[in-house]
Amino acid sequence: MSTTTVATDRPAGNRRSVRAGLPLTRASGLGLGIAMLWFSLLVLIPLAAVVVTSAGGGWSNFWQTVTNEQTAAAIRLTVGFAFLVTLVNVVMGTLIAWVLVRDNFFGKRALEVLIDIPFALPTIIAGLVLLSLYGPESPFGVNVANTRASVFLAFLFVTLPFVVRTVQPVLAELDRDAEEAAASLGASRLTIFRRIILPSLTPAIAAGAALSFARAVGEYGSLVLLSGNLPMRTEVTSVRILSSIENDNLDSAAAVATVLLAISLVVIVTLDVLQRRMVRRG
């Protein structure tokens, strides 16, 4: 009887220890301090400086800047297309990752390399490539230069790898036994995907979607040549920020940047909440 009691009590004690956490050793504390200092210097302090600078002209100047007709149009265009591109990447990125992991075909290795090109290619060169393929002298007869379609195309190009590369390793590590067991019990392929595979992939998809959205919102280089930066039509927020800086108006540039920062934060938190709920339901 006592042996059983000890065996059942010990895990509870272990769980309490895990919750409480172990005290940091000197080496761990030093590592944590260096990591936080590095993170603060690279991320927290610059972001805080942008927010503080945006408030330099007062609330009225901040509100006037972000509600300016040209700035508001740039924000709507950037955020709207970034959201649409993220939706496309969630579907197509997951599909590409599935093909790369579950299928064997001629040219698979070449496709693996091509997917990473947007990572390695400087964005201004990406803009030149897109202009050559889809500009006035397009070999395909497709000219989207100086149109909103050029913004969407550029966003698609630079954000292509994110969902693929976050989903692919997770999909490759999934245990196929559960899928085979479900299939042997009569579950359809759709049911297997929805109830077994998708819950495991959801965190990776959400992470890739967040990266894709953030990358699109801040894109500049690939748009310069193709979109034409036409006010009220193809001008994105990064161009508006640059214009404000060139006109020595740092307060306005920081105000627009703060709005984008807030929107990106909301999107990231929303994606995290949604993926947690989907995992629990799955």
From TrEMBL:
Keywords assigned: Membrane, Sulfate transport, Transmembrane, Transmembrane helix, Transport
Annotated ABC transmembrane type-1 domain residues: 75-271
Membrane topology of this protein: Multi-pass membrane protein
Keyword Lipid metabolism applies: no
Family as reported in the entry's similarity comment: Belongs to the binding-protein-dependent transport system permease family. CysTW subfamily.
Function per UniProt: Part of the ABC transporter complex CysAWTP (TC 3.A.1.6.1) involved in sulfate/thiosulfate import. Probably responsible for the translocation of the substrate across the membrane. Part of the ABC transporter complex (TC 3.A.1.6.1) involved in sulfate/thiosulfate import.
Official protein name in the record: Sulfate transport system permease protein CysT
The species this protein was found in: Luedemannella flava
Gene from which this protein is expressed: cysT
